[in-house]
Amino acid sequence: MQWRNYRFINGLLVLASIVGMSFALYLEHVKGLDPCPLCVFQRVGLMAMGIFALIAFLHNPASNLMKRMYALLATLSIGWSVGVAARHVWLQTLPPDQVPSCGPGLNYLIDALPLKTVLNEVLTGSGECAAIDWTFLGQSLPVWSLVFFSVLLLICLWQLFRTYPVAKKAYKK
């Protein structure tokens, strides 16, 4: 069963990360949609998950502990993207009078403030993140991102908690 193979699943996660980032870059560079700060943070989690899945794919550890360690790191990474995407969707559902005011751009924040303050500023939301610039089947990009990231999170959680076959030891006769 190929779908139960640890390496195969990590390969799929790497591929999903590449496809997700390719689509994000297509929207940014071809369609001209500038990513808001929350979009950038969602990308960070997706890329981190892809990197951990790639390392797990290449390493292909025999130890169940190492398999779970890679799965935990990938789960935490994509869990970050799920949380940020959920926050983004929430911001987009707020009535216009309750949307936070637009602050300075992400580049300025990173240049001028400590990282902890930047994270706090971005995650508390910004008016530019509430704008809906793109839809598909009546849903905004953050909604589709949340769906995509949630599926990846479920796969990572399955990798983390599933039962792995016990490695067979070679016995000398």
Structure description:
This protein is mainly α and 173 residues long. The protein has a domain at 6-95 and 131-161: Bromodomain-like, CATH 1.20.1550. It is 68% helix and 2% strand. It has helices at residues 6-29, 37-59, 64-93, 106-112, 115-123, 127-130, 141-161, and strands spanning 135-136, 139-140. A two-stranded antiparallel sheet has the order 1-2. Strand 1 and strand 2 (139-140) form a beta hairpin. Helix 1 (6-29) packs antiparallel against helix 7 and helix 3 packs antiparallel against helix 7 (141-161).
Q: How far apart lie the N and C ends?
A: 32 Å
CA-based shape? elongated
Could you tell me the CATH topology label of the domain at 6-95 and 131-161: Bromodomain-like
Low-confidence spans = none
**Strands across the major sheet, in which order?**
1-2
In the CATH hierarchy, what is the class of the domain at 6-95 and 131-161? Mainly Alpha
Question: Any descriptors?
Answer:
single chain; 173 residues; mainly alpha; Bromodomain-like; two-stranded antiparallel sheet; 7 helices; 2 strands; 68% helix; elongated
In a few lines, what is going on in this structure?
This protein has a domain at 6-95 and 131-161: Bromodomain-like (Up-down Bundle), CATH 1.20.1550.10.
List the helices and strands and how they pair.
Layout: H1 6-29, H2 37-59, H3 64-93, H4 106-112, H5 115-123, H6 127-130, E1 135-136, E2 139-140, H7 141-161
Antiparallel strand pairs: 1-2
Helix pairs in contact: 1-2, 1-7, 2-3, 3-7
